[in-house]
Design brief:
The complex is a heterodimer.
Chain A: E1 4-7, E2 10-13, E3 19-25, E4 32-38, E5 44-51, E6 57-58, E7 67-73, E8 76-81, E9 90-97, E10 103-104, E11 108-112
Parallel strand pairs in A: 2-11
Antiparallel strand pairs in A: 1-3, 3-8, 4-5, 4-9, 5-6, 7-8, 9-10, 9-11
Chain B: E1 3-5, E2 10-14, E3 19-21, E4 24-26, E5 32-39, E6 46-52, E7 60-61, E8 64-69, E9 74-79, E10 88-96, E11 104-106, E12 110-115
Parallel strand pairs in B: 2-12
Antiparallel strand pairs in B: 1-4, 3-9, 5-6, 5-10, 7-8, 8-9, 10-11, 10-12
Classes of the chains: A mainly beta, B mainly beta.
Chain lengths: 113, 116
């Protein structure tokens, strides 16, 4: 149990385009989902927290207009990177939380050319 | 704000030996959770062990155990009988129970190498 999927696992896009990453909790309902960004050999940096049916809460320094988060249902949250630039290239990880524990997706590697 | 500190960027251990990874944290809360996560080269975050702050007994999970010292705000992970598959980045994490509940604060990580 407690499986979280992310799609796609890898994506390459051109600068200026938008990319959508999906995060799904497969066997439980997640009242809260989290989006992280991770650079090589570094820790996970929380980008935003989303609760189903409400606006996401973004961490300081994260551009909400650039990283659009939608949590439309108890099993699905999406992160859209708008007008992507090479500096947005990174590893993005989502997690889903039914109670006090977070279950992580496998991550998405985004490369912006 | 809560902070989590892992002072060992890298550690190594011989296969079958025991290794201890250190973690300290800072909080003014009395109720919280502490976690150790493992991130192998696949980069999938895997929960290793969890400790509830109100429990005095140290959590154990097979070869993994913790030494939780609440007064000292210390939460170390001991891996016994180390295996090659234990090689990974290990992150200590803190989660408070109130407010923005379930939000995790991560340490900077310890890269563990297991030597054959």
């Amino acid at each position: 149990g407690a499986v979280v999927s992310q799609h796609p696992s890898r994506v390459i896009c051109k600068s200026g385009t938008s990319v959508k990453i999906e995060c799904r909790s497969l066997d439980f309902q997640a009242t809260t989902m989290f989006w992280y960004r991770q650079f090589p050999k570094q820790s996970l940096m929380l980008m935003a927290t989303s609760n189903e049916g409400s606006k996401a809460t973004y961490e300081q320094g994260v551009e909400k207009d650039k990283f659009l988060i939608n949590h439309a249902s108890l099993t699905l949250s999406t992160l859209t990177v708008t007008s992507a630039h090479p500096e947005d290239s990174s590893f993005y990880i989502c997690s889903a939380s039914p109670l006090y524990e977070q279950f992580f997706g496998p991550g998405t590697r985004l490369t912006v050319l | 704000a809560q902070t989590v500190t892992q002072s060992q960027p890298e550690m190594s251990v011989q296969e079958a030996e025991t290794v201890t990874l250190s973690c300290t944290y800072d909080t003014s809360e009395s109720d919280y959770y502490l976690f150790w996560y493992k991130q192998p080269p696949s980069r999938q975050m895997i929960l290793v062990i969890r400790q509830e702050a109100y429990k005095q007994q140290n959590a154990t999970e097979n070869r993994f155990s913790v030494n939780f010292q609440k007064a000292a705000k210390s939460f170390s992970l001991k891996i016994s009988d180390s295996q090659l598959g234990d090689a990974a980045m290990y992150f200590c994490a803190y989660s408070q129970l109130s407010g923005s509940a379930r939000q995790l604060t991560f340490g900077s990580g310890t890269q563990l190498t297991v030597l054959p």
